């Protein structure tokens, strides 16, 4: 895919959204068909679009453009809750909530066809001469890139959490708020609307904040990108854990912790994309994007809703029903003022059991965030080396990794070129912001 024409591919994927537009208004076979087409279009577009940005812009400007691009994910997700819930409410049918977004796809097709420039690969870096390698060689080189692999696993954890929150968040909060005295008649659409507003605002603030912090801190600390991602996840974990404890206690504080938890989570989006682009050479970026998107979606937001749901069902079966029923009764009985109304008590008890089982399963998202944060922190150990390696390869210099260097001298890595490594005792200075003098055991033939 790296050697293809991204503009044409983008247009094709947007045309698939047009197919979805038609299918949403025609009752064919089943919903699986239209969503399969939509999924193919979205996956293709998400793979190609960042590489076009990387070929148009470079360095800090590229980071800003990526932040603007990834702005759309959390903000669009929040708008989806708002527009979807309101459209379904006004139309009186949930089907109409799904018939809004394809119209936006039509607008995107027109804009891509007439306004998007298709640059040469590596043009922004001043290097458009790079030879295209085979797909197998691309994959082998990508897998060996430790910064890419560790950041991909970290980003998979980000996707896992966002997918779980997007699917189960409104329903979980709704069930908890219903257990509060006086809120028995709360509507799911109202909770979804508020959740969407919070998600959108956290994206509006979090994505550009992450990019701004990276640009500022990276001047002094070259490893800032993975560190911001890692600490963002580690900071988000306790906030979302606290939010999961509060729906039955205080709605305001629940949404308060969700906002700051999602804000910390949203620091990652543009930074992860920027890291991928500067540790992978231009001709392999589309393949790397596809690999990262496949892993992050397959094991992240595609699987997390099912995993949380299955774990919730298991929790319901294994839960000590008596203990939780008594806990729910303490909340329910004051609301009915001692009136033993079977039709009221039983549904609320069931709602309480479902709430607590879902709560236990959502606790896993905080654990996954901690794992993701650790992987991003590990990425920091390799990011400078892999960035410098990619830059040298773009300049046409063959690079060699000599990972097993004498530990007695405190040597970290050796980056040499075919022309430079000719003398056993020749030294080089490689790192950004650091000078590391190292020896080479043999000359390069």
Automatic annotation (TrEMBL):
Annotated compartments: Membrane
Membrane topology listed for this record: Multi-pass membrane protein
Keywords: Membrane, Transmembrane, Transmembrane helix, Transport
UniProt cross-references to Pfam families, sorted A to Z: MFS_1 (PF07690)
Transmembrane annotation, as ranges: 12-29, 65-84, 96-116, 148-169, 191-215, 227-249, 255-281, 331-349, 361-384
Positions of the Major facilitator superfamily (MFS) profile domain: 1-384
GO cellular component: membrane
Protein name, UniProt field: Major facilitator superfamily (MFS) profile domain-containing protein
Keyword Cell membrane part of the UniProt annotation: no
Family from the record: Belongs to the major facilitator superfamily. Spinster (TC 2.A.1.49) family.
InterPro entries (UniProt xref): MFS, MFS_dom, MFS_spinster-like, MFS_trans_sf
Presence of the UniProt keyword Magnesium in the record: no
Example GO molecular function: transmembrane transporter activity
Organism: Pediculus humanus subsp. corporis (Body louse)
């Amino acid at each position: 895919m790296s050697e293809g024409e991204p503009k044409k591919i983008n247009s094709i994927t947007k045309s698939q959204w047009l197919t979805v537009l038609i299918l949403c208004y025609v009752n064919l076979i089943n919903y699986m068909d239209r969503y399969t087409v939509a999924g193919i279009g979205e996956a293709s577009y998400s793979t190609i679009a960042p590489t076009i940005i990387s070929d148009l812009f470079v360095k800090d400007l590229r980071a800003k453009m990526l932040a603007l691009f990834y702005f759309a994910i959390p903000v669009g997700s929040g708008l989806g809750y708002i527009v979807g819930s309101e459209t379904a409410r006004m139309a009186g049918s949930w089907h109409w909530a799904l018939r809004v977004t394809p119209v936006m796809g039509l607008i995107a097709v027109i804009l891509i066809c007439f306004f998007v420039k298709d640059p040469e690969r590596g043009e922004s870096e001043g290097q458009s001469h790079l030879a295209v390698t085979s797909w197998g060689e691309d994959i082998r080189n990508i897998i060996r890139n430790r910064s890419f692999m560790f950041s991909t696993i970290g980003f998979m954890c980000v996707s896992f959490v966002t997918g779980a929150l997007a699917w189960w968040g409104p329903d979980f909060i709704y069930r908890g708020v219903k257990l509060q005295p006086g809120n028995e008649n709360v509507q799911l659409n109202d909770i979804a609307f508020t959740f969407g507003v919070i998600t959108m605002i956290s994206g509006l603030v979090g994505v550009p904040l992450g990019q701004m912090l990276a640009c500022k801190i990276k001047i002094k600390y070259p490893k800032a990108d993975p560190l911001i991602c890692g600490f963002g996840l580690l900071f988000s974990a306790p906030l979302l854990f606290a939010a999961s404890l509060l729906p039955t206690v205080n709605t305001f504080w629940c949404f308060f912790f969700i906002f700051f938890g999602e804000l910390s989570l949203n620091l990652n989006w543009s930074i992860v994309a920027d890291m991928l682009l500067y540790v992978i050479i231009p001709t392999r970026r589309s393949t790397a994007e596809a690999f990262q998107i496949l892993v992050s979606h397959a094991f992240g937001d595609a699987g997390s809703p099912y995993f949380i749901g299955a774990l919730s069902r298991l929790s319901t079966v294994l839960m000590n029903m008596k203990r939780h029923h008594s806990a729910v009764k303490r909340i329910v009985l004051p609301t009915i003022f001692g009136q033993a109304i079977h039709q009221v008590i039983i549904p609320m008890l069931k709602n309480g059991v479902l709430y607590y089982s879902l709560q236990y399963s959502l606790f896993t998202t905080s654990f996954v965030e901690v794992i993701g944060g650790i992987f991003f922190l590990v990425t920091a150990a390799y990011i400078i080396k892999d960035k410098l390696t990619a830059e040298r390869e773009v300049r046409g210099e063959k690079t060699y990794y000599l990972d097993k260097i004498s530990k007695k001298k405190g040597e970290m890595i050796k980056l040499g070129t075919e022309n430079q490594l000719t003398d056993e005792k020749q030294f080089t200075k490689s790192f950004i912001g650091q000078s590391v003098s190292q020896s080479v055991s043999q000359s390069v033939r």
